[in-house]
Amino acid sequence: VSANELVTKLMQSQPSYIRTIKPNENKSPSEFDVKRVLHQVKYLGLCENIRIRRAGFAYRQTFEKFVERFYLLSSQTSYAGDFIWTGGSKEACIQILKDTDIKSEEWQIGTTKVFIRHPEVIWGLETMRERYWHGMAQRIQTAWRKYQAFRAAKATKIQRVWRQKRQAFELIKFREHGDGLLGGKKERRRFSICSLRTFNGDYLMVNSRDKHTRGFLLREAAQIGSEPAVFSSRIEFLVPRAMRSARPMPRQLVVTKDHVCIVEEKVVDGLVQHALVSKIDVAAIKDLAMSPYQDGWTVVHLMSQPDLVFNCEFKTEMLTWLNSVSQGRIHLQVNSTISYNNKNMKSTQIKFVKNEAVQRAVFEKKTVQVCSGLPAGTRSQTIRDRPAGSTASRPKPQQQQQRATPTAGYNAPAAARQINGNANVQKQQRATPAPQPVQSAVQSTAPSGSSRRPSAPPPPPPPAAMPKHPRHKALFDFSDANSGMLSLEAGQLYEVLEKNDSGWWLGSRNGVEGWIPSNYLSPEPEAASHQAPHAPVIPPPMAMRNNPTGDVDNQQLDSMAQLAAALASRSPSNNVTPTSEKGHVPARPGMNRFAQEDSDEEEAWE
User: Fold this and answer.
1) How far apart are CA 387 and CA 137, in angstroms?
2) Beta bridge pairs of residue 429
3) Which DSSP string do the residues of 155-188 spell out, in sequence order?
4) Residue 250 CB coordination number (10 Å)
5) How far is CA 226 from the centre of its chain?
């Protein structure tokens, strides 16, 4: 009975034969007897089994296990390492073998298993599987490195912007402190309250350590050593003259924490030389005095010394720096008449009057003429307060024309129909010949050779209006991504709304305003061109049309009359102002400041 049960169990099971090979006789794990192992392999029949196995299919595996191991090799069964096949395992095996370009004679599909003839095919599949994982690892590493580099670059950019913004915030806060020092007592200039206006201080680069720069030469001339300059700018210093009235001359102002220096720059034998004109201690300054208008003239009252009088474009910034280095001791006095001590310590007055005819402050006979500026209570603009149109891109010509044409109650479709209707009427008028005028009875009784002289042609339309501001031609291209700047195109004309000695002018073109470098523009403004419109064509006299064989002399007289009328309409004399009727030509900036008449001798500097 037990033997029958054993046979029954063996028939129900799937036997697996295991052949054991002994490497040595000593049962040692580190010894290997080659002759004994070869003897066992030969007599156990392993070589014959391998030969028979290789004659058929060396690799036999179920569909599920084959797909589980090699599904990564087909794009139909995997995506980014995930199994995406929705069909059966048998179809997945066939798809994998086709996508790996294995020849059909190398594999065979059974009922539950896939058969592969040569083991080299399996080795190739394993190699492809390893390369796949290696490529995926490289992709992950590359993506991670890119992310790390991107994060580092963005962090560096954020840090750089924050450092710049932090410095800008400090300068803006310092500018607001300057607005508070004015206290709403002085009119403001448009450049002073510009949102991009920051108190940089050292405009002449005095703190530069490069010996080849002009700022280094100013430092040497000012004799300030290693002391940093908090403010430097070009000024017009009131210089006394012997037996003549004082006049403003160009100088350089350098302010440090302890001294205020005025340096003269002149050219001697073709070389630029600097000389120290005045050097005073900040502790010797009592206060500053200015006018209530928008000019930059400043009087520095000193203790037991002649006062300093000069014109500075950056007056508010200079006041703020002096107030800061003196720890709030130096304040501002505002008055339309300012008294100061001249070089002989005698009291002298300088008056300020308004004159809307001048564009810039003009000093003459101890009187400064200045036009009106912005209200005294105007505060400096910030970036969020700036009008949106100032940073808008330059509109196209079509867009500009569309913006300028509509008016209140403008109806675009109706206007378009009206324009088209007018154009059609004009076309019809040009296409239809003008009716011939009927000759009167007086003309019919006149001799055949005579004819009435043609009436004078209608006057030409008025010329285009003169531009309100001077226009300068751009010499070079200029582009800047910063807001508030206006790009330049070489050869184009730009209106200059305001000129500043700092080198930046406020320009405008096509309705867009912005700051432009003055050295990129031609120094002389372009002359406005007025071209008279062409005179209308005068039709020939009626006598010539009706009587072409009339008197030749009368026809010549009529032709000469037509020519005289045409020349009169084309003559530019109507548009050109005679020399004797020219108005007052405004002087160039600085002409009235540096050129004084000798008639001022009676008001000599005492």
Assistant:
1) 54
2) none
3) HHHHHHHHHHHHHHHHHHHHHHHHHHHHTT-S-B
4) 16
5) 37
* 380-400 CB burial, b ≥16 within 10 A, e <16: bbeeeeeeeeebeeeeeeeee
Element (H, E) at 559: helix 552-570
Alpha-carbon distance 250 to 313, whole Å?
12
Separation CA 149–CA 272 (nearest Å): 50
Comparing CA positions, the residue from 529, 387, 578, 544 lying closest to residue 450 is 544
Contacting residues for 264 by C-beta, under 8 A, at least 6 apart? 249, 251, 252, 274, 275, 276, 277
Tens digits of residue pLDDT in 207-236:
888 888 888 889 999 998 888 999 999 999
Pairing of strands 271-281, 285-290: unpaired
Residue in this structure with the two tokens 């697996």, named with its chain if needed: 16
Smallest CA-to-CA distance from 185 within 405, 327, 334 is with: 334
Helix axes 119-182, 315-325, angle to 10 degrees: 90
Please tell me whether residue 35 adopts helix, strand or coil conformation.
Answer: helix
The 10s digit of each residue's pLDDT in 485-538 is: 788 888 889 888 888 777 788 888 888 888 888 878 888 888 765 544 444 555
Q: Specify the 3-state DSSP secondary structure of 244.
A: strand
Distance, first Cα to last Cα, the chain: 150
Beta strands in 75-198, from DSSP E residues, in sequence order? 78-79, 82-83, 107-109, 113-116
Query: Over 340-409, what HEC string results?
Result: EECCCCCEEEEEEEECCCCCCCEEECCEEEECCCECCCCCCCCHHHCCHHHCCCCCCHHHHHHHHCCCCC
Q: How many degrees, rounded to 5, is the angle at CA 362 between CA 276 and CA 523?
A: 80
Report the SS3 class of residue 521.
Answer: strand
Whether 354 and 370 have beta carbons less than 8 Å apart is answered as yes
CB contact at 8 A, 251 and 310: yes
pLDDT tens across 94-142, in order? 999 999 999 988 899 999 999 998 888 999 999 999 999 999 999 999 9
User: Pairing between strand 367-370 and 347-354?
Assistant: parallel
